[in-house]
């Protein structure tokens, strides 16, 4: 099953306008397994067990990627637990990445895979200033389906994600990766809610992507094969692409 991106919303907040978002040069992608804890216990998660050596390993891998520079743009994809589970450590790692990229004249493009449940606006801003402005968050359906598939250790993971998207995503572009095998009823309920919340329109719309259900590790591996220019700014509304024939999710069908 291929992934289908529904809309291509992007916008950068004014404070970040001078940070280059895209270049025409080649992109080198490096996956960084943070080895952090996670707030969720998803079915089928295959993340690396937490261990103190995990963070040093991540740092070594990042340094090696800078030393082995092969392109003008270095895309670092952070996964493995959640960046917001250890925000100080993540910021520290990003600080080093930002300094290295500046010293070596490399454009840094940070992407974080997050469970989306524990964002804080000040941390999102700080991570953005250090090069991470793209987040990928999995949604396995409306609340009941998502909470069943990706249960939080505390509370409803779905509600917490919604709160992050409502209040804490300024300065960040968010791509929601939605399980493409959802039933029609669940898909309709989810898309109706996202429309009611107006998350797909306005100054900083989220992008919706339908694809197979994956763990963060599997999704990071998929992202590595999808290297290329990042999505470009789109009209501030939910727009559909033509390759939707196998995903029955158009607004028209929602009435
Ligand atoms: S799949 Fe991702 S979000 Fe889910 S428990 Fe594993 S690391 Fe956390």
Shape: globular
Bound compounds, each kind once, are: iron/sulfur cluster
Radius of gyration: 17 Å
CATH architecture term: Alpha-Beta Barrel
The structural class is alpha/beta
- Helical residue percent? 25-40%
Mean pLDDT: 82
Number of helices: 8
- State the strand order across the main sheet: 1-7-6-5-4-3-2
Largest sheet: 7 strands, mixed
Kindly summarize this structure in a few lines.
The chain is 35% helix and 17% strand.
Structural write-up:
The relative contact order is 0.21. The protein has one domain (4-254): TIM Barrel. It has 255 residues and is an alpha/beta fold. Helices cover 35% and strands 17% of the residues. The longest helix is centred in the middle third of the chain and has 18 residues, at 87-104. It has a 7-stranded mixed beta sheet, sandwiched between helices. Helix 1 (52-67) runs parallel beside helix 2 (87-104). It has helices at 52-67, 87-104, 121-129, 143-149, 157-167, 184-196, 216-225, 251-254, and strands at 4-5, 27-33, 73-79, 107-113, 132-139, 173-179, 207-211. Iron/sulfur cluster binds at residues 38, 40-42, 45, 47, 81, 115, 150, 215-216.
């Amino acid at each position: 099953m291929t992934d289908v991106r529904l809309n291509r919303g992007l916008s950068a907040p004014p404070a970040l306008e001078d940070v280059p978002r895209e270049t025409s040069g080649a992109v080198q992608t490096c996956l960084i397994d943070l080895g952090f804890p996670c707030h969720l216990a998803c079915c089928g998660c295959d993340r690396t067990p937490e261990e103190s050596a995990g963070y040093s390993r991540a740092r070594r891998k990042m340094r090696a990627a800078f030393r082995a520079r092969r392109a003008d743009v270095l895309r670092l994809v952070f996964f493995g637990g959640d960046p917001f589970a250890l925000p100080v450590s993540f910021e520290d790692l990003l600080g080093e990445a930002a300094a290295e990229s500046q010293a070596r004249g490399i454009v840094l493009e940070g992407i974080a895979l997050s469970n989306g449940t524990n964002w804080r606006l000040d941390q999102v801003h700080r991570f953005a200033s250090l090069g991470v402005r793209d987040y990928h968050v999995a949604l396995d359906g409306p609340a009941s389906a998502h909470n069943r598939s990706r249960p939080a250790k505390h509370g409803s993971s779905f509600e917490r994600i919604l709160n992050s998207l409502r209040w804490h995503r300024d300065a960040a572009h968010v791509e929601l990766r939605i399980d493409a095998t959802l039933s029609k009823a669940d898909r309709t309920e989810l898309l109706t809610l996202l429309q009611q919340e107006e998350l797909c329109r306005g100054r900083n719309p989220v992008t919706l992507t339908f694809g197979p259900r994956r763990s963060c590790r599997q999704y990071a591996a998929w992202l590595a094969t999808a290297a290329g220019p990042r999505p470009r700014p789109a009209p501030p509304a939910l727009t559909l692409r033509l390759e939707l024939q196998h995903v029955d999710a158009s607004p028209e069908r929602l009435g």
